[in-house]
Write a structure and sequence with these properties.
The chain is an all-alpha fold. It has one domain (6-323). It is 75% helix and 0% strand. The longest helix has 33 residues, at 221-253.
C-alpha cells in the first residue's frame, strides 16, 4: 500500500499526532494518579499496561472508511484484550496461567480468522499476526528457567521466532512488497540515515530509562560488540519489525484506517515490553513503534524501521557495556 497524495499523508500524520498525544496524556495521568495514591510499583505497572491495552482495543474498534465485518473487529478487540491479560499474568506469580493463555490465543486467533468471510483475507492475517506475537511467548515454554540467563538464550529464541515467521510467510499469498520487505518508495540513503538518527535517539533515551546491565558478563570488547550487533541489532530488529511493521500493521491498514493501524501495532509493541517492569519502557516502546510505523508506511519499506531498531539496540547495550 503506497499513499502518494499529500492530502492523505498530512491527514494521517495529523491523526497520528493527535491520537499519540491522547495516549501519552492518558498514560501519564494514570502513572501520576496511581503513584500519588500510594500504589506500589508493580500495581502502577499493571495500571499502565491496562491503559495501553484498553486504548488498543478502542483504536481497533473505531469506525473507519475501510469497514470490515463486526466479527472481524470483535475478534481483533478480543485479541488485544487477551494479549494484555496474558502479559500481566506471565509476568506475575501466575506465570503458568499466562503461558496457558498464550497457548489458548495461539489456537484461538487463527480459529477466529477461519470464521471470517472469504474476502476478509487481511483481517485474517491480522489475527494470525496476533497469534505470531504469542509465539514469542510460547516458544519459551520448552526451555528450563536456568536457560534464561544463558548467552545462547536470545539467539536461539529469536532464530525460532524467525523460522516461524518465514514458514508463515511462505504459506500465505503475501508478497515481499505487501510485507514491506523491499527497498521502498523513498531514497535508500535517506531511509538508512533517518533510521540511524531515530535509532540514536531511541538508544540514548532507553538507556536512561532502563540502565541495563551488560548482556555478557565478563565478555571482552570484540565478543560483546559481535554479540550486540548480531543478536540485539540484526536478529531482534529483523524479527520484531517483520512481525509488527511487516505483518501486523499492513494487515490492519487493509481493515481500519492507517493511523489506527499504526496506533494498534505500536500499543501492542509497547505492551510486549511489560516484562521490563518499567512503565516508561512500555511508553518508550510505544512511542518508538509509532515512529517506526509511520516511517514504514510512507516509505513502504522496513529498511528505515529495521535500521532504527537495530541501531537503537546497539547504542543501548554498548553504552551499558562501557559504563559497567
Amino acid at each position: 500500500m503506497i499513499l502518494s497524495t499529500a492530502g492523505s499523508e498530512s491527514s494521517i500524520l495529523k491523526n497520528t499526532l493527535i491520537s499519540t498525544s491522547a495516549v501519552l496524556a492518558l498514560f501519564l495521568l494514570t502513572y501520576a494518579s496511581t503513584s500519588i495514591l500510594g500504589y506500589d510499583y508493580y500495581e502502577v505497572q499493571i495500571a499502565s499496561a491496562v491503559v495501553i491495552g484498553i486504548l488498543g482495543m478502542v483504536f481497533v474498534s473505531l469506525k473507519s472508511s475501510y469497514g470490515g465485518s463486526q466479527i472481524a473487529k470483535f475478534s481483533m478487540v478480543l485479541s488485544v484484550g487477551l494479549i494484555l491479560l496474558e502479559e500481566i499474568l506471565l509476568n506475575s506469580t501466575l506465570a503458568l496461567y499466562g503461558m496457558v493463555l498464550a497457548i489458548v490465543g495461539l489456537i484461538l486467533f487463527p480459529a477466529l480468522g477461519a470464521m471470517l468471510k472469504e474476502n476478509e483475507f487481511w483481517p485474517r492475517v491480522a489475527l494470525e499476526s496476533a497469534a505470531l506475537i504469542l509465539v514469542t511467548r510460547v516458544v519459551l515454554s520448552p526451555f528450563p528457567v536456568s536457560f534464561l540467563s544463558n548467552s545462547a538464550f536470545l539467539p536461539v529464541i529469536y532464530a525460532l521466532i524467525l523460522l516461524a515467521l518465514v514458514i508463515y510467510l511462505r504459506s500465505k499469498p503475501i508478497s515481499a512488497k505487501q510485507a514491506r520487505i523491499t527497498s521502498g518508495s523513498r531514497d535508500v540513503i535517506l531511509q538508512v540515515g533517518t533510521g540511524l538518527a531515530i535509532g540514536l535517539i531511541v538508544g540514548l533515551t532507553e538507556y536512561q530509562v532502563l540502565t541495563p546491565q551488560p548482556l555478557l558478563a565478563g565478555a571482552g570488547l570484540l565478543q560483546m560488540i559481535a554479540y550486540v550487533i548480531i543478536v540485539t541489532g540484526i536478529m531482534m530488529s529483523v524479527v520484531e519489525e517483520l512481525l509488527f511493521r511487516g505483518l501486523l500493521q499492513p494487515s490492519l491498514e487493509k481493515t481500519i484506517s492507517v493511523w489506527q493501524a499504526i496506533q494498534v501495532s505500536s500499543l501492542l509493541f509497547g505492551l510486549m515490553h511489560f516484562g521490563w517492569m518499567n512503565p516508561f519502557e512500555m511508553l518508550l516502546a510505544y512511542g518508538a513503534g509509532v515512529v517506526f510505523g509511520y516511517v514504514s508506511t510512507f516509505s513502504n519499506s522496513l529498511l528505515g524501521p529495521m535500521t532504527a531498531h537495530a541501531f537503537g539496540n546497539i547504542v543501548l547495550y554498548l553504552i551499558a557495556f562501557f559504563r559497567a
